[in-house]
Structure formats: C-alpha cells, structure tokens
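Recap from last week: sequence in, structure out.
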Amino acid sequence: MSSSFFAVSHLGPRTMSSLHLPFKSPLLIRPLAPLRSQLNAFEVRHIWVAQWICRLVPNTCPPGHDLKLFGRTWLHVPSLCKFNPLTEELVDLRFRAADFLYEQTAN
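Predicted structure tokens:
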C-alpha cells in the first residue's frame, strides 16, 4: 500500500503545505468559524439583552496575576484575553450593545 501519506517522512525538507495528501488536514479546519460568524451577525434589539451583554463581557482585559507563596513568585498567570480566540468578536459585540444602549437613552 503505497500512498503519499506513508511517504511523508521520506520527503526531506518539503513542507506540509507543498504535499498533496489524499485527505484534508485537520489543521486547515476552522472549528470556531460558525461561532464567529454568529457573533458578528448578532443584532442587539432589546435593552435587557444589551445590558446583559455589557455586564457579561468586560470592557478591558484584566491583567495577569502572580501566584506568590512565602514572598516568592511561583507562577505567573498571563492575561486570558491572549488565549481566547473569540476576544475580538466579543469586544465588538459589547461595543454594539453599548452603542444600542446609548441610542436608546438618547431618544
């Protein structure tokens, strides 16, 4: 059984992107794309929804924390916004909710 999949390790310096594999690589799949498009397409239409979003999503990213024990730093926990792949979409949703609240109170 000689397919291009089994010959990958014998190709030398070629990259994975230049290979013609018989299957789709799992690295090319974007599992969060549907959730991102739903967050971007979400329209805020009610005041209570806008208030809930503004309470749920923080307006700034909290700083990282140090875990100290006996006066010595043992662990540094970085800001979790750097690890959240949906940060931009959530911040944009919060901005749209705050803008909706501003427009409703301005009338």
